[in-house]
Write a structure and sequence with these properties.
Strand content: 15-25%
Shape: elongated
Order of helices and strands: EHEHEHEEHEHEHEEEEH
Largest sheet: 7 strands, parallel
GO molecular function, one term: RNA methyltransferase activity
Strand order of the largest sheet: 7-6-5-10-8-11-9
Organism: Lachnoclostridium phytofermentans (strain ATCC 700394 / DSM 18823 / ISDg)
Keywords: Methyltransferase, Transferase
CATH architecture of the largest domain: 3-Layer(aba) Sandwich
CATH superfamily of the largest domain: SPOUT methyltransferase, trefoil knot domain
Helix content: 25-40%
Structural class: alpha/beta
CATH topology of the largest domain: Alpha/beta knot
Distance between the termini: 46 Å
Number of helices: 7
Protein name: tRNA/rRNA methyltransferase (SpoU)
Number of strands: 11
Domain tRNA/rRNA methyltransferase SpoU type: 94-232
Number of domains: 2
Length: 238
């Protein structure tokens, strides 16, 4: 395997940082794994080497390489994988993120989606790079258990997913979302804006606009919290 460098979006490969997301990647997508670097001080080496051997994945010694590509001192495993393309399943309910910008939040949302049984997540461009190691790590490997797809516009997304009932989450949404009054569509798309600006008013005319009731003591909920609340209620009621 060729020597690897600190990540850039233009690369055809990326990394998992840490043992857990690396193992999750191997379990979910062994076909994309190019190799695994293990630090000389890693304590569970035998277990990880066995998983790699079972899946015919090269194991490499690379203390300096790990230090070079990771931005934290407590990284002892780096998995190298080939980037891949996906298409979301138009027959499944989805989460749609409009212009997501925070990589840590994006990874957390992917993990939340999988945790509540949503395996299709769409992004309206521009948006954060889903293959950035920061996203991969914060998803704790959940990225490899779902399908994702980027769209140039929301109208393009709708053309590919015409049968979804759309629910836009907005601070000025018209319908309050509560435990006892959550819509029950068979096929839905939950649409969220980014951390800074949310969704603009043009989304009020798209589907049903939703507001999550909150106290007046805060201006808004964190995006990851809003996605978690919305996804939990919709998946539990459908």
């Amino acid at each position: 395997m060729e020597p690897i460098k600190p990540y850039k979006k233009s690369f055809e490969y990326s990394y998992t940082l840490g043992a857990f997301p690396t193992i999750e990647m191997i379990k979910s997508r062994p076909d994309i794994v190019k190799g695994v670097y293990i630090h000389s001080t890693f304590t569970d080496r035998e277990h990880l080497e066995a998983i790699c051997k079972e899946n015919h994945i090269p194991v490499l010694q690379g203390d300096k390489t790990i230090a070079k590509v990771s931005d934290k001192e407590n990284v002892f495993v780096v998995g190298v994988f080939e980037k891949y393309s996906c298409t979301v399943d138009a027959t499944k309910s989805q989460i749609v993120l409009v212009n997501p910008s925070n990589m840590g939040n994006l990874g957390t949302i992917l993990r939340t989606a999988v945790g509540f049984g949503i395996h299709d997540v769409s992004f309206i461009e521009p948006g954060a790079d889903v293959f950035n190691p920061k996203v991969v790590r914060s998803s704790m490997g959940a990225l490899f258990r779902l399908r994702h797809q980027y769209f140039e516009s929301f109208s393009e997304y709708q053309k590919q997913n015409p049968n979804h009932e759309i629910f836009t989450f907005m601070l000025n949404g018209k319908k309050p979302l509560t435990i006892n009054d959550c819509p029950k569509p068979k096929l839905f798309s939950l649409v969220f804006g980014n951390e800074a600006t949310g969704l603009d008013d043009s989304y009020l005319s798209v589907g049903t606009s939703i507001i999550i009731p909150q106290s007046e003591e805060v201006d808004s909920l964190n995006l990851t919290i809003a996605v978690g609340i919305g996804t939990y209620l919709f998946t539990q009621n459908n």
